[in-house]
Amino acid sequence: MSAQETLNISGLHAWYGESHVLHGVDMRVNEGEVVALLGRNGAGRTTTMRAIVGLTGARKGSIRIRGEEAIKLPPHRVAKLGVGYCPEERGIFASLSAEENLMLPPEIAQGGMSVAEIYDMFPNLKERAASPGTRLSGGEQQMLAVARILRTGARLLLLDEISEGLAPVIVQKLAETIRTLKAKGYTIVLVEQNFRFAAPLADRFYVMEHGRIVREFAQHELRENMGMLQEYLGV
Question: For residue 2, what pLDDT is reported?
Fold first, then answer.
């Protein structure tokens, strides 16, 4: 694993209006790593993802993406640093076909996956290419939401609750996808409520509570941290 940092967050505070949600978040993600951000609902995990891409209100602190300070950048400029964000709500356009949804985001960097490569990774999407967004199952919508950012050329992927509410066979397919992307050198941050999904995939784990990182540990330290995870997550 390369020790080169893709993402370095230091002293990050974020607000929604008057609500102060993040209280000095510190975390780093090395190139080619899969990092899981764990915590109960309301701990600040999704807000951390949204703050990275500039979708919260006021932000204070430092967010460095491949060494470039992004704390003051608008979302479209953050995207051009090679960041792809897959939000929990998926954002599939109902009136567009699956393939039209796939082609919608602009290319932000060279090296994005071709449509053929994406269909090779997600055969279901090839079969449903002409189907409108409303006709896709939840699993197909989630695959499409992930596939859409792969075409853009983003190499840092922020994936928010991609396994939520999906059938086990689809969750297994998404886990295989993450392993494939890691093998291709992508850097991935997972926000997951489903600990059993995240546990075997992540190189390192951060645990959040009340808008702060409270624990950090590596994959090889997982077993000895299960008691702590039970306390914080109820897993």
Answer: 42
Beta bridge partner(s), residue 7: 29, 65
Element (H, E) at 151: none
Per domain, the residue ranges of the chain are 5-233
- Beta-sheet pairing, 34-38 with 204-209: parallel
Best CA proximity match to 59, nearest among 25, 7, 14: 14
What pLDDT, in 10s, does the model give residues 160-218? 999 998 999 999 999 999 999 999 999 999 999 888 999 999 999 999 999 999 999 99
Question: Looking at the DSSP assignment, which residues form a beta bridge with residue 187?
Answer: 156
Whole-Å CA distances, 224 to 37, 54, 203:
18, 35, 15
pLDDT of residue 39: 92
Please tell me whether residue 42 adopts helix, strand or coil conformation.
coil
Residue 126 reports pLDDT greater than 50: yes
Q: Does the reported pTM lie above 0.90?
A: yes
Written as one letter, the residue type at 33 is: E
8 Å CB contact between 106 and 152: yes
Q: Please provide the DSSP assignment of 80-131 as one string.
A: TTTEEEE-TT----TTSBHHHHHH-SPP-STTPPPHHHHHHH-HHHHHTTTS
Give the integer Cα–Cα distance in Å for 201 and 183: 12
**Under CATH, what is the fold of the domain 5-233?**
Rossmann fold (3.40.50)
Element (H, E) at 213: strand 212-218
Report the DSSP pairing between strands 204-209 and 212-218: antiparallel
